[in-house]
Amino acid sequence: MLLETIKKANDIKKIPPEKFPELAEEIRAFLLEHVSRTGGHLASNLGAVELTMALHYVFCLPEDKIIWDVGHQSYTHKILTGRQEGFDTLRTFGGMSGFPKRSESPCDAYDTGHSSTSISAGVGYVCARDLKGEDYSVVSVIGDGALTGGMAYEAINNAASLKKNFMIVLNDNEMSISQNVGGISSYLSNMRTTEGYHEFKTGVKNSLNKIPGIGPAAIKQIHKTKDSIKRLMIPGMFFEDMGLTYLGPVDGHDCSRLVQIFQEAKKVQGSVLIHVKTEKGRGYEPAMRHPARFHGTAAFDLEHGIPLSNNGKANYTDIFSTVMRKFGDREKQVVAVTAAMPDGTGLKRFRNMFPERFFDVGIAEEHAVTFAAGLALGGMIPVVAVYSSFLQRAIDQIIEDVCLQNLHVIFAVDRAGLVGSDGETHQGCFDLSYLSMIPNMTVMAPKNKWELSDMLKFAVKYDGPIAVRYPRGEAYDGLEEFREPIVRGRSELIYQGKDIALLAVGSMVKTAERVRELLISDGENPTLVNARFVKPLDKKMLDTLAKKHDVIVTMEENVKSGGFGSAVAEYMQITHPTVRVQVCALPDSFIGHGNPEKLKQKAGIDADSIYNRIKEAE
Ligand SMILES: Cc1ncc(C[n+]2csc(CCOP(=O)(O)OP(=O)(O)O)c2C)c(N)n1
Ligand SMILES: CC(=O)[C@@H](O)[C@H](O)COP(=O)(O)O
Ligand SMILES: [Mg+2]
């Protein structure tokens, strides 16, 4: 096994290049064996094996810096830097991260998780290097999907004017998570190879020469217009025009060609972009056929590519998907917007049934929100379906473009709360704070699957900026009997008791039920309220609770700062200072990867921890 000889960074240099195809095969087998057991990002990693090997062969780590965009494709990089053992604990609590982490290895040059940042970070490294008079290479590896994000162009624009030695590797597999979309994606897939241009040129010359009296003149004309033909036919003119040197496209599964081109690129002065064509899911039939399904996967049966666990229960995304399909039929003004996540957000069905009312804007959350503002002004009702952590990108647009103009834009905020194995870059910990701080915004969170549906219907009828946030995973199907109509700013009383009031947001209502049971077994009779609205706050309910309760315990899957509990505490302190408010929320720290239940325990927002806190404070 060649892989056994790789114990640390740069060990690949000891393997003769003619053995690279064998090593690539071993790496793919290793990835499949491990990811099929643990789950993780598979298809992108299978596609980037040779590319990563060639980079590790040509560059010297950790001195040279490789910056992985998003970072979900960095598994081979982890293998080649001595972290094979980490794959047994991949993305589990306390185990190895699925993304590059500087705390994990000096060979991880930059922590990532969100898209389209690698070129900016690379340019920063390059400037620091030159200012300090140091000598190392900086390579940013960006996918064609990540290249749909605006930051990439801001960074290329900057890199070109700086005229510093810098390398960008474009890993083009013609896929984002789903099919890649938009102008840049078409540009990349329409690119001719350099060989293609030469073949075209020779072919035209030969044919024209055969026409007596016309050929030579026409050929002269071709030379005159060569520049414009070149623009049409030579690949990479867009990047060249932006001030980069373009090399490629090159077969991303041909290791020796990759090594050669990276070595050539090292000699180029200024910024160079190497266009590498790869195949997502390479080497595993089910992943090649269904790259989106195997982009990020749970554990699966290796032989057939079928997920191991599927209890058949609907998750919140499924509920959203079903409601959107109904809106498609009944609410002709409703349009759907996604930033490259039609699968993850559940909009795929809407896309298939109502393609003219579906917009995938690429990995461009900022644009998605301002685009929705335009749609709203033009008379549509846009539903922007987006993960909580990715919506962070668009805070300015939510404030300036949507809320300032008080537009009817619906934000379907998925993956709100602790998402689990993706870790700190993807936890949806901040949306309640950053959404409820904005004037005109309404913020809701459902306690169960029926309430998600009711809230979405309410949001369509409402007029103004409105967000519904719901967590990753199985939708709660308890408390079905509590289904009061949704009224803006009104919470829902579930169980009336006294002394202690449990006031929970969204997913935490289920936890609050458990806390209530624990307290009942101690002889208490706590009240349970489903907050429903984080903004506006149900002050009437707080005034009522103040009459019969000494303590209000708030619960939310969001950071404490600026969250629901802080708002309740602020109101109570001014209006009912004798009532104590205990805020149970996420701490002021980044929460790593692992099983969400474990993460909740660690953060102190599981039922036992909350119960213990209540008892300790008595
Ligand atoms: C800001 C942001 N939005 C969305 C995502 C979700 N996401 C992760 S990878 C990915 C597709 C990336 O495509 P590409 O860069 O081509 O890499 P590939 O998976 O094809 O290797 C998306 C949309 C993200 N990580 N960050
Ligand atoms: C790398 C990335 O950002 C996505 O692939 C993300 O991991 C998807 O998360 P879900 O599995 O929750 O859809
Ligand atoms: Mg891609």
Tell me what you see in this structure.
The protein is an alpha/beta fold and 618 residues long. The protein has four domains: 244 residues, Thiamin diphosphate (ThDP)-binding fold, Pyr/PP domains (Rossmann fold, 3-Layer(aba) Sandwich); 43 residues, no CATH class; 154 residues, 3-Layer(aba) Sandwich (Rossmann fold); 126 residues, Rossmann fold. The strands form four sheets. The protein has a seven-stranded mixed β-sheet with strand order 9-8-10-11-13-12-17, with helices on both faces. Helix 3 crosses helix 12 and helix 8 packs antiparallel against helix 9. The longest helix is centred in the N-terminal third of the chain and has 19 residues. The protein is globular. It starts with 19 loop residues before the first helix and ends with a helix. About 3% of the residues have low confidence. The site of 1-deoxy-D-xylulose-5-phosphate (DXP) has 10 residues, from loops.
Provide key terms for this protein.
618 residues; alpha/beta; Rossmann fold; 4 domains; seven-stranded mixed β-sheet; five-stranded parallel β-sheet; 25 helices; 19 strands; binds thiamine diphosphate; binds 1-deoxy-D-xylulose-5-phosphate; binds magnesium ion; thiamine pyrophosphate binding; Dxylulose-5-P_synthase; isoprene biosynthesis; magnesium ion binding; magnesium
What is the alpha-carbon Rg in Å? 27 Å
What ligands does this structure carry? Answer: thiamine diphosphate, 1-deoxy-D-xylulose-5-phosphate, magnesium ion
Distance between the termini: 62 Å
SS field, number of helical segments: 25
The count of β-strands is 19
The share of residues in extended strands comes to 15-25%
Question: What's the arrangement of strands in the largest beta sheet?
Answer: 9-8-10-11-13-12-17
Poorly predicted regions are 192-208
Major β-sheet, in short? 7 strands, mixed
Structural class given helices, strands, pairing?
Answer: alpha/beta
Q: Percent of residues in helical segments?
A: 40-55%
- Count of all domains: 4
Report the CATH superfamily of the largest domain. Thiamin diphosphate (ThDP)-binding fold, Pyr/PP domains
Kindly report the CATH topology of the largest domain: Rossmann fold
CATH class of the largest domain: Alpha Beta
Q: Mean pLDDT, nearest integer?
A: 94
